[in-house]
Design goal:
This protein is mainly α. It has helices at 3-23, 38-52, 56-71, 75-92, 94-103. Helix 1 crosses helix 4, helix 3 runs antiparallel to helix 4 (75-92) and helix 4 (75-92) crosses helix 5. The longest helix has 21 residues, at 3-23. The radius of gyration is 17 Å and the shape is globular. The termini are far apart.
C-alpha cells in the first residue's frame, strides 16, 4: 500500500468514525443536516463516495462494516475497522482517491505522519526510551 493511500485513510479516518458514531448505519443514506458538525459531514460525504462507487456486493459489505462499527462501543476498534475498509477502497479505486483528496484539507507543510501496526508496535517522531515485550524494566536515570 502506498504512503499516499495510508495518509489519505489516516486523514479521513476521524471524520468517517465521527459520522458513523453520530448517524450509525444510516450514514450511508442519510441526507446531511445543515446543522451537522463539519467533521461528521465530511465523514459522511467520504462514506457516501465509497458507497456510490461500489457494486451491490460492495455496498452490502460496506453496510455490514459501518453497522458493526456503529454498534461497537470501542472507538479504537471502530477506527481500525473503518480505516481498513477505507484503505482498501482507496487502494482499489484511483478515482476515489482523487475525490477524497479534493475533500480533505492539504496537510500542513512539515507535517509528519507516523503509523505503527501490529502487536507491541510503537511509533513516534521523537522518542526517549521505548521498551516492548514482557519482563523488562525501564532503565533508572
Amino acid at each position: 500500500m502506498s504512503a499516499e493511500i495510508a495518509q489519505l485513510a489516516e486523514q479521513a479516518g476521524p471524520a468517517v468514525t465521527a459520522a458513523v458514531g453520530a448517524y450509525g448505519a444510516a450514514v450511508l443514506t442519510r441526507a446531511q443536516d445543515a446543522a451537522a458538525e463539519a467533521t461528521v459531514g465530511l465523514g459522511q460525504r467520504i462514506l457516501q463516495l465509497v458507497w456510490r462507487r461500489r457494486d451491490e456486493a460492495g455496498r452490502t459489505e460496506l453496510e455490514q462494516v459501518v453497522g458493526e462499527a456503529a454498534d461497537e462501543q470501542d472507538d479504537t476498534y471502530s477506527t481500525a475497522v473503518l480505516g481498513r475498509l477505507l484503505r482498501h477502497a482507496l487502494q482499489d479505486d484511483p478515482g476515489l482517491r482523487e475525490e477524497v483528496s479534493a475533500l480533505l484539507p492539504a496537510p500542513a507543510a512539515g507535517t509528519v505522519t507516523i503509523t505503527a501496526a501490529g502487536e507491541r508496535s510503537i511509533a513516534a517522531q521523537h522518542i526517549g526510551t521505548a521498551i516492548t515485550g514482557d519482563g523488562h524494566t525501564p532503565p533508572r536515570s
